[in-house]
């Protein structure tokens, strides 16, 4: 009957997939996985993962002895059901990210710790959460019955031994080269059968892809038929042998026993036989590219496909996209005269992808390989990504703009100066301090743009700098250096704001006019508005780039280091508007620090991350108290330091009083004493006033010592 995709209908189909006959199981699971891939159900990812894992475990353990024919004539087997479910599960897991991100960068970027264990942990937490709404709780309970119709008990990865075994093999493949294939074992027999199936012509010619075991690997045509019979095995068993098959095939290609075309054809035959093997293909090739042990493949059009037809055009368009955004990279095509090469595993993966037809049937498989291919190309030396984009642009011209834009993002992975330029453009565009075609008068619209195609420059649609940074920040190799760069750009932006709003000649003229003070206050207010905007942008960039760890590093290490150091940008207090610039700089840093903290911890204690807040705040406030007592020598301008301390404390008193209640009372007393030395009695009293019962005595002493003006 017709399938409407409702949750009630899904429940019925899943019960059939678990409890029905063999034919009914295959039919029901096929409908369930196919609908998940095509309909885009509005289901939470962790709960959907909990549904897919038992499907993968069950149908991956079934031999393809039974098939089911759809009305369209398509024949469905357990391998097809498993491959659909497994492919969807990998997409939920962000499968393509780990290999490169475990190797590159000092700090793991935000949001990449999405593992199967984590998905199940979140799923179990959602079901056990007592605070969810009745509607959410009802949906959670119904979805839990999909993954286990008989109960709403938590699900753990140990419940799926076959999936767990594959995950261990996947992780081992990333960690080290392959070993452990022993002739005569069941895994070896499957390995031998897969090679015979993939490379029939070579086997019929008497050649062997495994010289160390040539006696057992050589097969005739009859042997190939026998191997196909031996491969009527569960999908999990086949996947266990696939890494060894890939290693043997790639080694044979590297030593000339297998041509690049034969390698690509064999890989396609393997993927057609068991589409789920694409996951292992991606895993193995990604790991081998990262290891860098293979010789390069020359993309000359003879052995491997050639990008020469449009490579120069792609590189030119990349330059134009970056220039239109405001980033100038002197020479991206410095090695244009050298032959185009790719690492051998990457060349094999690219060749495999371009053998696929662009139709609905192969879309989900290309969606699995595509992100991994993009991540690998970005991590390889320039111009690997333009080469990949050129090859795919030849195959799918309608994707050309997207492919070129994807290649342009990898520039920031290889060129740290380009990252700094992009950050600078983010500041100048947001503050309205440049003449970019997309900046206009500044603000969020200038930072994030108004949609693609809203502005054109020389035939190229400029990408708003904020949008571009959101797409490239994960490609930054050294995340820690970004804090210093953002901090430096923030302070230079303050100087530009002051020069724009409070130029020295204007300040001197205002002093001599009747209403000079009033106009000066208006200019200062306008400057402060822009300073707050710059600080909020800086805090957003720090949070987006490195998350909680980078914010804590900023407050514990980067800011104290900045105050201790001497900075060339700071003007003398007595020169023109120099004192005003120094003061604005201090307030900018105060807003920058507090906003960064609120992004990471929140203003209250509701977030789990807030548990780390007391330690970080204590370290920072102890630094401030020590500097106020003269125990630490500062290199920054005194006006900057004073504005920072008073601004930071004022913001915490007004906006985050919960923070101060977590601080040691003795530290608060030291801060309060330093503020009193600056004649900031009201702020010192307000600081102690939010410190809770422990600070009441110190507050009373301050009131008594300060006299009637405070009372």
UniProtKB/TrEMBL annotation:
GO terms for biological process: regulation of phenylpropanoid metabolic process. Residues 138-150 have a biased composition (Low complexity). The keyword Lipid biosynthesis does not apply. Keywords: Membrane, Transmembrane, Transmembrane helix. GO terms for cellular component: mediator complex. The chain crosses the membrane at residues 533-555, 580-603, 683-704. Residues 129-150 are annotated as: Disordered. InterPro entries: MED33A/B (IPR039638). PANTHER family: MEDIATOR OF RNA POLYMERASE II TRANSCRIPTION SUBUNIT 33B, OS07G0681500 PROTEIN. This is Mediator of RNA polymerase II transcription subunit 33A. The lineage of its organism: Eukaryota, Viridiplantae, Streptophyta, Embryophyta, Tracheophyta.
């Amino acid at each position: 009957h017709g399938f409407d995709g409702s949750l009630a209908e899904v429940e019925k189909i899943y019960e059939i997939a678990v409890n029905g006959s063999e034919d009914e199981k295959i039919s029901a699971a096929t409908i369930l996985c196919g609908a998940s891939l095509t309909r885009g159900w509005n289901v939470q990812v962790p709960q959907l993962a909990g549904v897919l894992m038992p499907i993968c475990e069950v149908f991956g353990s079934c031999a393809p002895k039974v098939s089911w024919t759809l009305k369209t004539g398509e024949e469905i087997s357990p391998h097809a059901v498993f491959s659909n479910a497994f492919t969807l599960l990998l997409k939920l897991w962000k499968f393509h990210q780990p290999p490169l991100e475990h190797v590159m960068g000092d700090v793991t970027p935000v949001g990449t710790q999405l593992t199967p264990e984590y998905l199940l942990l979140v799923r179990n937490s959602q079901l056990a959460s007592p605070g969810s709404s009745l509607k959410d709780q009802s949906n959670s309970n119904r979805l839990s019955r999909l993954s286990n119709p008989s109960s709403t008990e938590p699900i753990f990865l140990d419940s799926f031994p076959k999936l767990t075994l594959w995950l261990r093999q996947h992780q081992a493949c990333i960690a080290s080269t392959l070993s452990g294939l022993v002739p005569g074992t069941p895994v070896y027999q499957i390995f031998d059968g897969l090679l015979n199936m993939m490379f029939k012509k070579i086997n019929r010619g008497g050649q062997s892809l495994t010289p160390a075991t040539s006696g057992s690997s050589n097969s005739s045509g009859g042997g190939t038929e026998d191997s196909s019979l031996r491969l009527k095995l569960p999908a999990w068993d086949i996947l266990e042998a696939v890494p060894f098959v890939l290693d043997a095939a790639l080694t044979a290609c590297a030593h000339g026993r297998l041509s690049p075309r034969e390698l690509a054809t064999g890989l396609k035959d393997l993927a057609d036989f068991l589409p789920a093997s694409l996951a292992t293909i991606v895993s193995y090739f990604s790991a081998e590219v990262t290891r860098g042990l293979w010789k390069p493949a020359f993309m000359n059009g003879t052995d491997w496909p050639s990008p020469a037809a449009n490579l120069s055009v792609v590189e030119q368009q990349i330059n134009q996209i970056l220039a239109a955004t405001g980033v100038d990279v002197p020479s991206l095509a410095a090695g244009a005269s050298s032959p185009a090469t790719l690492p051998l595993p990457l060349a094999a993966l690219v060749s495999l992808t371009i053998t696929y037809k662009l139709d609905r049937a192969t879309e989900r498989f290309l969606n699995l390989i595509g992100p991994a291919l993009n991540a690998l190309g970005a991590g390889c030396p320039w111009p690997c990504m333009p080469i990949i984009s050129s090859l795919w642009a030849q195959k799918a011209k309608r994707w050309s703009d997207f492919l070129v834009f994807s290649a342009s993002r990898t520039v920031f992975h290889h060129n740290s100066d380009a990252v700094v330029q992009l950050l600078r453009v983010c500041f100048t565009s947001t503050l309205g301090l440049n003449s970019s075609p997309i900046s206009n008068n500044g603000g969020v619209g200038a930072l994030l743009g108004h949609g693609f195609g809203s502005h054109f420059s020389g035939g190229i649609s400029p990408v708003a700098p904020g949008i571009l940074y959101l797409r490239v920040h994960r490609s930054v190799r050294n995340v820690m250096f970004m804090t210093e760069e953002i901090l430096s750009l923030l302070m230079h932006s303050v100087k530009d704001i002051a020069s724009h709003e409070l130029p020295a000649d204007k300040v001197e003229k205002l002093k001599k006019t009747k209403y000079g003070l009033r106009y000066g206050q208006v200019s200062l207010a306008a400057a402060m508005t822009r300073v707050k905007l710059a600080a909020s942008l800086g805090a957003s960039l720090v949070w987006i780039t490195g998350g909680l760890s980078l914010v804590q590093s900023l407050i514990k290490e980067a800011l104290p280091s900045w105050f201790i150091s001497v900075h060339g940008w700071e003007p003398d207090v007595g020169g023109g508007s120099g004192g005003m610039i120094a003061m604005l700089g201090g307030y900018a840093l105060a807003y920058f620090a507090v906003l960064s903290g609120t992004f990471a911890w929140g203003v209250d204690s509701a977030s789990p991350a807030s548990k780390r807040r007391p330690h970080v705040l204590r370290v920072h406030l102890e630094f401030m108290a020590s500097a106020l007592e003269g125990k630490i020598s500062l290199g920054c301008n005194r006006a900057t330091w004073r504005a920072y301390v008073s601004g930071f404390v004022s913001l915490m008193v007004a906006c985050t009083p919960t923070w101060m209640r977590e601080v040691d009372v003795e530290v608060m007393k030291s801060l309060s004493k330093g503020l009193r030395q600056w004649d900031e009695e009201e702020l010192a009293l307000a600081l102690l006033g939010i410190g809770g019962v422990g600070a009441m005595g110190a507050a009373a002493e301050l009131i008594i010592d300060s006299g009637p003006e405070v009372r």
